[in-house]
Amino acid sequence: MRHSLAGHQQGLISQIEEPVVAVSVSLSRQAFARFRRHKPALVGAVVLLLIALAVLVGPLLLPYKPNAVDLSVFQKPPSIAHPLGTDSAGRDVLTRLLAGGRVSLAIGCLVALISTFLGLLLGAVAGFYRGIADFLTLRLTEIILSFPGLVAVAGAAALFGPSTKLLIVVLSLFSWPTPCLIVRAMTLSIRNYEYVTAARAAGASNARIVLFDVVPAVLSPLTVFATVAVAQAILAEAGLSFLGFGVPPPDSSWGNMLNAAESIAIISGQAWLWLPPGLLIAITVLSINLVGDGLRDAVDPRSAEGLAGLR
Amino acid sequence: MLWVVVQRLLVALPTFVGITLVSFIGIRLAPGDPVRTSLDPLIAGGPDGEAYIALRRHELGLDQSLPVQYLDWMRAVLKGDLGYSFATGQPVSEIIHARLGPTMELMATALAVAILIGVTVGVLTAFRQYSVFDYVATFASLVAISIPQFFLGLIAIFVFAVTLRILPVGGMSTLGEPPGLGDAVAHILLPASILGLTFAGPFVRYTRASVLETIHKEYILAARAKGLSERRVSFRHALPNALLPLVALVGLQVPYLVAGAVVIETVFQWPGMGQLLLTAFQELDYPVLSGFVMVLALFVFAGLLLSEILYGVLDPRIRRS
User: Is B149 on the interface with A (CB under 8 A)?
Assistant: First the structure.
């Protein structure tokens, strides 16, 4: 492994040194090569794949249903029949952990997708039409960015009743400002470029210019944002479900499994109920953040020197 | 400088009004009726139930249209009157005042922990770039922002309060014992260090990046070239410039700090704003919620403004522009 990687680096360097081949190394391939050399990011990606696989396939292989109550075995410590024990309703913790992972990961991915798309849309509109649209969008991002999103989502859940759909919607509503500001800045600078003027002269619509000129330009920062957004959304889901404002029971998520650990008796005596979901959240989020760091270094070589921002 | 402050306040004003307006209307548009929620079902279901509910709604001003309610509220707020809690009848300002102290105490201690650890570790990693310490610390700071705060809190309770029995499980003081400094420190130690540790992560990353950027600048090379000692180059030339942007970062962290405090207060039963907020949501206590949101927004804006002013004081370039 080590050898082949070193060999790969060697190959890359010799490629760059030979002028004829260097021309053929495209930007995206260079970025991919940088990502592959970022070992922590590779480890993160592999761990993520394994977790995704376990979460997708696991519940199909296990003999229990995640919500099946079995009062004959309630609060049992880990055993061969129940590798991670059972909870206060006799449900198998491992099964619930894997099924809950589906929910947590789905929330993370959906929030990242929706907020990126919303940000792209609003950022492009603000950047293109400027004036009042720009002013309103900027004020809106300011309001949202200066308000603790977690508190607002907790509020929405308390007022409207907790539901997974609401959680996804409200989390997305609180995550779009960052991609919006990225896209807006890029649109503002791109709209004055001559090739955009040329495209416009040739009859290209605003939608077409956004799709073919703006989107490619913001694709790499948006990818990095979306990756980190998945991690942030998983953390937010966990915190909210822990407070009782997230995914409502009986369905499990990593966050609401931790909700069970609100009494000292469970914290001290039944660690199998709260340690596994907490550890899985931490490992998943850490892996995503590692991949995010790797992506950042890959699309922005400057950041490999540590110049990138935070969070 | 004064002009900059005035300018910032003018820009912040519409945003501030926006936050109060959106939250005021959002809270009241939600399903559920605060009068019915807090009412004894026997009275509500009784013969005069509906009439009583209508009377109570009128008393609380809930039968007015939303814009009128908002304007009434805003007018009262400008006179310093935040209204009365639906649930307890206490003045909202009193309720919030009682909770503000503990939360401020927790947030300030946590912020101090975060800055102390974050900046120290960040500077050390930058001066020893690519050392083992650098890798370990950089990884640790990534771990710190990846672990849910409340999970870290549960682990800390498990280790220090349940297993080792050296620190209390939660609360602000031991019941039935005279208040003392030692007792207070023992109670704040876990919540504040956990909140602080998770916030040290961003500070480490940012400090490291900023110091690295600075020590590759040409004026550092020039300082070395004229024969200054490495210590003088670091402490007189590099660090002051590198740490300056951190002042702005502190302000930006305030919203996250508030959110973190809400969660940590729940884990450690800290009697602050977080717990107040959660009960107010459940009871649909509109005046408390609106007052709370306003105080939160004030917090955030004060944080941003303070860090901006401080930045201007420390950096003459900003002050003059």
Answer: yes
Query: What are the phi and psi torsion angles at A146 (to 5°)?
Result: -95, 5
**Looking at the predicted structure, is the pLDDT value of residue A307 above 80?**
no
**What are the pLDDT digits (tens) for B51-86?**
777 777 777 777 778 888 888 888 888 888 888 888
Nearest to B263 by CA among A236, A143, A277: A236
Q: What is the pLDDT of residue B308?
A: 77
Q: Which tokens in the block code for residue B277?
A: 């907020």
Question: Would you call A264 and B282 a contact, using CB atoms and an 8 Å cutoff?
Answer: no
Which whole-number Å values give the CA distances from B282 to A220, B35, B44, B94, B216, in the listed order?
A: 42, 13, 19, 20, 54
Please state, in angstroms and rounded to a whole number, the distance separating the CA atoms of residues B121 and A92: 43
Q: Do B27 and A159 touch (CB under 8 A)?
A: yes
Find all residues with CB under 8 Å of B321, minimum gap 6, and list them.
none
pTM of the model: 0.82
ipTM of the complex: 0.80
Place of tokens 């503990």: B102
- CB distance A85 to A93 below 8 Å: yes
Alpha carbon of residue A292 to chain centroid:
9
- Chain A residues with CB under 8 Å of B147 CB are 278, 281-282, 285-286
